[in-house]
């Protein structure tokens, strides 16, 4: 590998027929050298002894494929079809071309800094088959502490994870898995797998892919692994940032007042009303409610409209192109039926231009000239029909009109009345321009129909090649329908856990509701959780069992410290001395990445300041602008979701903070208690929550 890099970096050897060709060849060679260089220190992590057509050979598996052009030293990439054999339980395979093969041995090779540190046989037919080495390697890796980035699992993909990652390209897939089952990393590895040339027509270009993460803290945290997987320029963002960018309203402040109400209000009637309204706003039926509303709006705007324009053509007298109101209505009907990706306005322009070219019998070489002549009058006409329709004003106009909500016939009178209520009136709103997160899908629907939805490449709107959705249980069915329009058919990977539906007010009630919006989508379930020790996993399962979804998740049999419980009678300092003691105990146990998880953001801010009096300096992460850089942090449960830490401390882990009678509160407690890899502490003044006492 070093010799190959030296060859590529030697400009004198990259010679072409002329200077320009030589420069291009030299630049390409330097790119190849730069791609290969990081892998010299760990060129492979596994080997396969295989028997094909009577011959035995050893294949090496690494993060980067490498072919030795002058010798036998070849490494196959982990994401290739051959590389898949390293993770699979299968003992034979039949290639597209050539003879069938049999695997004689699988072997894990720990290599670092060009040094072989350890050899572990995973399977050896001469030693009786399965050696138990795969579990041994996994446990060894899971014992490692957390870092400020996401784990790279290429070397230790388990068979069920590998199967999910390599689910057939071109088929939408929903990967359901408990906290710590590796959903997010599997989704990222699947995206890398999708960019391989082996995917053929389904191959995804990295720059045409998008990953949606639930918040900016997690987006920044997760994006660091993508370059390590060999894919650059993938857009990693949040649904809110993507939506406001598409709407051209990047400075719009996005609020989540429903979450604020759920986290602060003790009135269960008001909370239930806010939950139901948010659910209805994200209902997939709203797509057709919006479509019907726009149909009525645009048809009304056609009244009295028409077009009469003189067009100059070479060798002929000027021709007059005329459109009356009836002809415009017919074109609008055709455009609605075609439902173009770039929206009705662009579709209407194309339809009128096509009719003009056909009616006037315009030669091909004069089509551009005719389009230029019609450009200004067409823009004026379309402005009169469509210009008053902006996503924010139109979505709010629709919600404020019971008659328009009823026009589609899809909503009941009770649902229309619900949309007219305001259970969030007690939650403050920003002074500047804002939109609530529950309104955004409705605004995106208006944008999709009027201005289009997808990936902007210059001025061209095209579908994304592939989209990965993390925390997929928090995306509304309406948003799934819109993402389905914005992406190539079959190219959505959704990663979620119905157990962790903290934002269930804007998510689906079941995966079946998502499958209804993504035709052909299949649900795969990851049956094991790898994050935590047996003690922490059992505690989380006990909480999850109370709302009876996938509670029988199997953890890795990795023993660890008992869950630590810190309680004391209420005192002047509250639980601060207990938390400070828990931090010191976690540090004494050798942990450096430690999280103190609170119920609300305001609790984290207050506690971070107060803990300094107890010689404990925790970095507060209370908004999406904060970045997680490792060390001791304090953050609310809604921002902790998706992150993992060597040690976690759940503050105020009692029934006063997490209402035992409310399913939503038990979900929050489950998320809080499932952040730790190795060491978990539960802290409370007074009694701990009954589920964790």
From TrEMBL:
InterPro entries: DNA_helicase_UvrD/REP, P-loop_NTPase, UvrD-like_ATP-bd, UvrD-like_helicase_C. The keyword Lyase does not apply. ATP binds at residues 177-184. Residues 156-533 form the UvrD-like helicase ATP-binding domain. The keyword Nucleotide-binding applies. GO terms for molecular function: 3'-5' DNA helicase activity; ATP binding; DNA binding; hydrolase activity. This is ATP-binding domain-containing protein. Keywords: ATP-binding, Helicase, Hydrolase, Nucleotide-binding. Pfam families: UvrD_C_2 (PF13538). It comes from Deinococcus xianganensis. GO terms for biological process: recombinational repair.
């Amino acid at each position: 590998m070093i010799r190959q890099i030296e060859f590529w970096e030697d400009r004198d050897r990259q010679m072409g027929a002329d200077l320009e060709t030589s420069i291009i060849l030299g630049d390409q060679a330097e790119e190849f050298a730069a791609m290969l260089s990081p892998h010299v220190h760990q060129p492979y992590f596994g080997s396969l002894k295989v028997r094909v057509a009577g011959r035995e050979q050893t294949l090496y598996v690494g993060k980067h494929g490498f072919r030795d052009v002058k010798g036998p030293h070849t490494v196959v990439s982990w994401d290739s079809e051959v590389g898949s054999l390293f993770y699979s339980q299968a003992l034979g395979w039949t290639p597209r071309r050539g003879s069938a093969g049999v695997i004689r041995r699988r072997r894990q090779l720990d290599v670092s800094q060009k040094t072989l540190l350890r050899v572990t046989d995973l399977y050896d037919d001469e030693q009786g088959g399965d050696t138990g080495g795969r579990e041994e390697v996994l446990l060894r890796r899971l014992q490692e502490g957390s870092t400020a980035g996401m784990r790279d699992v290429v070397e230790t993909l388990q068979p069920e994870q590998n199967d999910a990652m390599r689910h057939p390209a071109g088929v939408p897939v929903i990967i359901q898995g408990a906290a710590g089952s590796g959903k997010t990393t599997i989704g990222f590895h699947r995206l890398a797998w999708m960019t391989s040339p082996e995917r053929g027509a389904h191959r995804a270009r990295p720059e045409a892919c998008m990953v949606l993460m639930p918040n900016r803290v997690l987006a920044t945290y997760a994006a660091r692994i993508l370059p390590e997987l060999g894919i650059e320029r993938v857009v990693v963002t949040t649904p809110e940032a993507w939506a406001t960018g598409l709407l051209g309203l990047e400075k719009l402040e996005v609020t989540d007042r429903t979450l604020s109400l759920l986290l602060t209000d003790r009135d269960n009637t008001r909370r239930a009303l806010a939950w139901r309204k948010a659910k209805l706003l994200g209902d997939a039926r709203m797509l057709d409610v919006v479509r019907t509303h726009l149909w009525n709006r645009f048809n009304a705007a056609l009244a009295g409209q028409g077009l009469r324009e003189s067009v100059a053509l070479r060798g002929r007298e000027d021709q007059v192109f005329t459109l009356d109101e009836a002809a415009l209505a017919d074109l609008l009907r055709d455009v609605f039926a075609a439902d173009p990706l770039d929206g009705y306005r662009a579709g209407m322009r194309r339809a009128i231009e096509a009719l003009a070219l056909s009616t006037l019998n315009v030669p091909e070489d004069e089509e551009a000239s005719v389009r230029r002549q019609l450009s200004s009058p067409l823009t004026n006409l379309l402005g009169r029909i469509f210009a008053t329709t902006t996503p924010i004003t139109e979505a709010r106009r629709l919600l404020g009109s019971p008659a328009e909500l009823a026009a589609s016939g899809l909503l009941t009178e009770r649902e229309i009345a619900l949309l007219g209520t305001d259970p969030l009136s007690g939650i403050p709103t920003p002074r500047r321009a804002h939109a609530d997160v529950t309104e955004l899908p409705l605004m995106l629907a208006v944008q999709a129909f009027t201005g289009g939805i997808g990936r902007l490449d210059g001025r061209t709107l095209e579908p994304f090649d592939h989209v990965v959705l993390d925390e997929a249980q928090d995306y509304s069915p309406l948003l799934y329908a819109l993402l389905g329009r914005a992406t190539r058919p079959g190219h959505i990977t959704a990663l979620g856990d119905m157990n962790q539906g903290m934002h269930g007010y804007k998510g689906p009630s079941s995966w079946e509701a998502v499958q209804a919006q993504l035709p052909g989508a299949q649900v795969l379930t990851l049956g094991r959780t790898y994050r935590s020790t047996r003690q922490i996993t059992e505690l989380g399962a006990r909480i999850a069992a109370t709302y009876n979804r996938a509670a029988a998740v199997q953890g890795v049999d990795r023993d660890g410290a008992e869950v630590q419980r810190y309680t004391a009678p209420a005192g002047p300092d509250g639980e601060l001395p207990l938390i400070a003691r828990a931090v010191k105990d976690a540090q004494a146990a050798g942990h450096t990445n430690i999280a103190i998880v609170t119920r609300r953001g305001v609790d984290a801010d207050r506690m971070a300041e107060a803990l300094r009096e107890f010689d404990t300096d925790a970095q507060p992460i209370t908004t999406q602008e904060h970045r997680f850089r490792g060390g001791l942090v304090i953050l609310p449960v809604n921002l902790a979701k998706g992150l993992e830490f060597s040690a976690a401390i759940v503050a105020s882990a009692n029934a006063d903070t997490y209402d035992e009678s409310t399913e939503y509160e038990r979900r929050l407690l489950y998320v809080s208690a499932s952040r730790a890899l190795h060491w978990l502490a539960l802290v409370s003044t007074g009694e701990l929550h009954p589920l964790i006492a």
